[in-house]
Design brief:
The mean pLDDT is about 80. The N and C termini lie far apart (about 65 Å). Helix 3 packs antiparallel against helix 5. The longest helix is centred in the last third of the chain and has 29 residues. The protein is about 65% helix and about 0% strand. By secondary structure, the protein is mainly α. Its main location: membrane. Keywords: Membrane, Phosphoprotein, Transmembrane, Transmembrane helix. This is Tumor protein p53-inducible protein 11.
């Protein structure tokens, strides 16, 4: 009995077979977008993560703004702690009738916020920078509301108080702008 020769083996080249490659990638779970909108090229990069997503694309001037805010908060806090009566007189244009303890407590709170800002200046983590900007924005919004209510109660509108209100609106706008731009997802290239 003569052995029948087997036909030559036909190798399937999965690299060139597009349907086979797509099926394999779908089974492995790579090639499609994940929850963060990223496309992983291999299972290894999917498991290890992509270091590019941790790199923060900062808006222009963000670090300078945080530095400026940290300095202003620190100076205002030290002024409120050291010279509470003079700070009140400059803003509201009248003698303070209450005790200076409340203004010193205000100075302590601002000093705490300035420490958060100084920390946000040196971090590279996007979440910490966002929380820093959000806490700054909340402070400006609350100070605007409190100052407005106080001026309505006093029945006067001195120029330093108007300047303070306008500066708070400006600072709130800039801070929220940086917060918004930092939170946006970068465009895929």
């Amino acid at each position: 009995m003569a052995a029948k020769p087997h036909p030559p083996l036909m190798k399937k080249h999965s690299q060139t077979d597009l349907v086979s490659r797509l099926k394999t990638r779908k089974i492995l779970g790579v090639g499609g977008e994940d929850d963060d909108g990223e496309v992983h090229r291999s299972k290894i990069s999917q498991m290890l993560g992509n270091e590019i997503k941790f790199a923060v694309r900062e808006p222009v001037g963000l670090r300078l703004w945080i530095l400026f805010s940290a300095v202003v908060f620190t100076v205002m806090a030290l002024m409120a702690l050291a010279f509470p009566n003079q700070l009140y007189e400059v803003v509201f244009d009248q003698e303070q009738t209450a005790t200076s303890v409340s203004i010193r407590l205000y100075g302590g709170a601002i000093l705490s916020l300035s420490l958060i800002l100084w920390n946000g200046l040196y971090t590279v983590e996007k979440a910490i920078i966002q929380w820093t900007l959000l806490s700054e924005a909340c402070y400006f919004a609350i100070q605007f509301l409190v100052t407005s209510v106080t001026l309505v109660e006093l029945g006067s509108l001195p120029n330093p108080a108007i300047l303070l209100l306008l500066s708070r609106v400006f600072f709130l706008t800039v801070t929220l702008s940086y917060y918004y731009h930092l939170g946006r997802r970068p465009k895929k290239i």
